[in-house]
Amino acid sequence: MGDNKAAHNGLLIDLDGVIYQGGRLVAGAIDTLDWIRQQQIPHLFVTNTTSRSRDDLLEKFKALGFSAGVDEIMTPVVAASQWLEDHNLHRVALFVPAPTQRDFGDVDAVSLDHETAVDAVVIGDLGEAWDFQLLNRAFRFLMQEPRPELIALGMTRYWRSDDGLQLDVAPFIKALEHAASCEALVVGKPARAFFSASLASIDCKADHALMIGDDIVGDIDAAQKCGIRGIQVRTGKFREADLDGEIKPFAVLDSIADLPAWWQHQAI
User: Fold this and answer.
1) What is the value of pTM for the model shown?
2) CA–CA distance, 260 with 263 (Å, rounded to integer)
């Protein structure tokens, strides 16, 4: 913990569980965001949220009392859209909420009601919309020849809503991988490419960056495997048992509200 302040010159910040939880702000979060901007620290909100478009996220921010620019948000949809374009894949089966489809731009989103040939099957967090028929439909797309790419918009296992823990996208990806004997391309956390793209967005090297998250696996461990030091907050999905395992965060804070004091202490 002897690094000085100059060694920390970029922040990757998770949203749900760190800045807010459900429809409520984490106490002190806005003051910390104001401090980050006052200090002119390069930062990016990195989220595996696929139930909202970036415009919808900006509207949520406004409703909660703070603002951001669209270029301050990195989502798996942004990364997936770029990957599809780079690999010239156009016909896509999108298993994502309707608002999220807007961020896919010009892809040819096929109807999920017809088993037509596609270049890729994209899976996001559909929450309670998942049922056997819908999951089986994704499986049937994947079993076509030639086999399409399976793209996972993150591999978050679960998250905490206002009424408790909820399954996220990873369990459904694992089921499809097993059934269709394939391996998903992951374009959100914890994929290395997602963190690399995020660092490039703020022009920051991995060893000069910090990742602030509530998920010991998807945020902290994933970032640290990329050379980014992880700060675990005790909000969101955090459980004290998370600290008993092999993953050791660079620092542990009660919440993001404690970041300014911690940061300044590093410079002493």
Assistant:
1) 0.79
2) 5
